[in-house]
Amino acid sequence: xxxxxxxxxxxxxxxxxxxxxxxxxxxxxxxxxxxxxxxxxxxxxxxxxxxxxxxxxxxxxxxxxxxxxxxxxxxxxxxxxxxxxxxxxxxxxxxxxxxxxxxxxxxxxxxxxxxxxxxxxxxxxxxxxxxxxxxxxxxxxxxxxxxxxxxxxxxxxxxxxxxxxxxxxxxxxxxxxxxxxxxxxxxxxxxxxxxxxxxxxxxxxxxxxxxxxxxxxxxxxxxxxxxxxxxxxxxxxxxxxxxxxxxxxxxxxxxxxxxxxxxxxxxxxxxxxxxxxxxxxxxxxxxxxxxxxxxxxxxxxxxx
Length: 304
Prior knowledge:
- This protein is an all-alpha fold and 304 residues long.
- The protein is built from 12 helices and no strands.
- It starts with a helix and ends in a 15-residue tail after the last helix.
- The relative contact order is 0.24.
């Protein structure tokens, strides 16, 4: 249990500080899609190098790894990386990070329909309603967390689409847990997601331009810490606990996002973010209560 929570904290730190590193990269002159491409490409190289060092081979040994990796490349990389990066132009890292707190609840909803043994209960429905009230407050308050204003409704919609895609990807990966190696799926995940983003990049922006050293260093952090390390740990957790339990990283991500954004980017903790974020987190806590009972750590029939 202690190892699971350590993995949750490390993955959450990577994802939570990822929003801040992305906003800093945008401030250094990189475009949202450029940041997503570099982040994915660096993570892909990191996985391949790690596999070679470990002498595990770079070709996946199962069809499940290919299916899961490709699906996750779309749902947990191409869609959220591009949309979240765009959202970070119009809202703070803390604002966008709070949207990720919805992942456990939305994962629970999808798991109810797609996995056996992970059913919705009345308590979880209440948590969902409270959290969605928080999202509405967050988006309609007019507070984006940026000193120069922003577009919280637009950023909120992009963030919501991103977490819906992430939640589906986590449930899909859990369906095949035990049928693939985590690093195999990670490699396909990063490679396929990077290819999709690169196509969007070339079509939308043309040939890449030279980036500043600051932007490159920030994107290296995003690729190695916020992507490679975080996702490798996430896949590792999916082999051991339920999809909804693993998604509790979304509970901790906003804390790292808000604190690091305030400390490093002079972001604002505005009233709308405080109230909306509190409602979201209360909804997550309500939902989380049902997973703290004995016997709820694993999902017995999720792997088929």
